[in-house]
Amino acid sequence: MASSTSDSAALDPAALAPGLTVVHGTHGIGTVTGLDTLDIGGATVDVVVVVFSSSGMNSGMTLRVPKPKLKDSGLRGLASRATIDEALALLSTPSKVRHADQYRLVAECNERLATGDLLKTARVARDMFRAATVRETPFSVERTFEDAVRRIADEGALVLDTTPDALEAMIRERLTDDRPA
Questions:
Q1: pTM here?
Q2: How many secondary structure helices (H) and strands (E) does the chain include?
Q3: Would you call 97 exposed, middle or buried from its count of C-beta atoms within 10 A (0-12, 13-18, 19+)?
């Protein structure tokens, strides 16, 4: 199942308008509040201004992305409903990851989260999930898992017109711990 290319494609500068909801791999979900022109060292630079919500992981942060760097910035539009459905279906599949080398696994998963790709984020949630029967879960594994779940829930809730908490409950119901011993 491949995601549509429009989900992961960079935003078109001509399509940006105030009020547009965007996703950044590192900062989460934000809203374009406008376009601005800055004078930096005698040069004039057109920038896109994105404000991240007060409830997200970077509450109240404002990001100014120069238009020429928009493609490389990692900003993208919200995922399609098909991609959200694909990510939710992926959560129900068994993980092939063993938790043998925790530090390497956490580092790899954090790199995937930073891409902002929803399907990679779903794989992180699936691979970092630990069933309640597991006695001890390292903090780094738990934190990475929670970050992935929250990112899917926040974006999915906007697309599916539900609350992040309701979608988070659905995500947790779909996860299984059928991984190799």
A1: 0.81
A2: 6, 5
A3: middle
> For 98-133, how does the pLDDT look when each residue is reduced to its tens digit (9 = 90+)?
766 778 889 999 999 988 899 999 999 998 888 766
Alpha carbon distance 85, 69 (integer Å): 31
Locate 181 and state its tokens.
């011993």
Count other C-beta atoms under 10 Å from residue 99's C-beta.
16
Distance CA 156, CA 84 (A): 6
Q: At what angle do helices 118-128 and 139-160 cross, to 10 degrees?
A: 140
Give pLDDT tens digits for 1-55.
Answer: 333 333 555 667 667 888 899 998 888 899 999 888 988 888 999 999 999 875 5
Count Cβ atoms below 10 Å from residue 28 Cβ, excluding itself.
22
Measured distance CA(78)–CA(29) in Å, rounded: 9
Among residues 18, 153, 2, the alpha carbon closest in space to that of 83 is found at: 2
Quickly tell me which residue has 């406008």 as its tokens.
Answer: 34
